[in-house]
Amino acid sequence: MRMSYPSSLVFAQACRLSVARVCWPVGVFRRHSLPCAAMTANESIEPTGGRRSLSRRAGAERKCLISLCADREQVTKSVHLYCVKLILAALFLALACAAHGAEAGTNLLAIYLLDRPLAQPWPKLDQAHLKDLKPVSPPVLADPDFVSFDLKKQAFVITGAAAKRLSLTIYSLARKDAPGWGDQVPYVHATGDFELIPVPAPFVLHAGGEPVYAGAFYCSASSTGFPGPVILSWEPFIKTNVAPNAKFSFFIQMGYPGEFPGTPDPRRDSRIAAAVQKLFARKR
């Protein structure tokens, strides 16, 4: 079959348009001359010619088709790679959301320390400001750490390992605001003991994955007052080699050193009672 002069030009242009339409949507179109553009004036626009001219035009057209197929294959690979990346990104996002949800939903009762200066006067840590607080994750105390929780007396007991983790975490956060403490933190006495709660440390208590109220860990020797819920320990010191079966008792009171008149008491929130009942029903 012999192709006339106009037909050759039309075919060449069609090749260019086909590649542009296929490649442009995925951003891989490159401005390069296709083999069909290699048809020079002597080869592609001869008004007449014999078998040699026809053979040259046919060869150029075959090269154009081969190039078009190669570009389509490249586009297909690019689309497949793009889809794989999208799937992996979606999978990573789903896993991250699931992990975040698992952290919030696993613990019925949890206490988070807050990422804010310690041992200093703080803005009011009340219900209206809970959404603005920045808890340090993971929680410093969680479900496995609680040995008991007395809702009536507002007292709880935790394991020795949890108490040591609580103390060392408070020390670690306090060092950011008190670099003068140096590297010898905590200071260990000759008896192998160090202070359990070295400085006041703000916290937020979560029940059923929701923040319920904010307060502060305190030591009995602190000289600063605080009107909100305060957690105090019956044991002022903890050993570096705390025994595996050791237990530490804490109590929650309103205000330090005593209750401030007119301060709302959030300790008996029904969400805390429900979380405590579910938690210890599991442990039985």
Task: Briefly say what this structure is.
The chain is an alpha+beta fold. The chain folds into two domains: 99 residues; 177 residues, no CATH class.
Labels describing this entry:
19% strand; alpha+beta; 284 residues; seven-stranded mixed β-sheet
Map the helices and strands.
Layout lengths: L4 H19 L17 H4 L6 H56 L2 E5 L32 E5 L4 E5 H18 L15 E3 L5 E7 L2 E9 L7 E8 L3 E3 L7 E10 L13 H14 L1
Parallel strand pairs: 6-7
Antiparallel strand pairs: 1-5, 2-3, 3-9, 4-8, 5-6, 7-9
Helix pairs in contact: 1-3
Notes on the protein architecture:
It is elongated and about 105 Å long. The protein contains 5 helices and 9 strands, in the order H-H-H-E-E-E-H-E-E-E-E-E-E-H. It has 284 residues and is α+β, with helices and mostly antiparallel strands. Strand 5 and strand 6 (210-218) form a beta hairpin. Helix content is 39%, strand content 19%.
What is Rg?
37 Å
> Structural class given helices, strands, pairing?
alpha+beta
Largest sheet: 7 strands, mixed
Point out poorly predicted stretches.
4-12, 17-46, 99-104
Shape: elongated
Count of domains: 2
* Order of SSEs: HHHEEEHEEEEEEH
State the total count of DSSP E strands: 9
Estimated share of beta-strand residues: 15-25%
Specify the number of helices: 5
Overall mean pLDDT stands at: 75
| Physical arrangement of strands within the biggest beta sheet | 1-5-6-7-9-3-2
The span between the termini is 90 Å
Helix proportion range: 25-40%
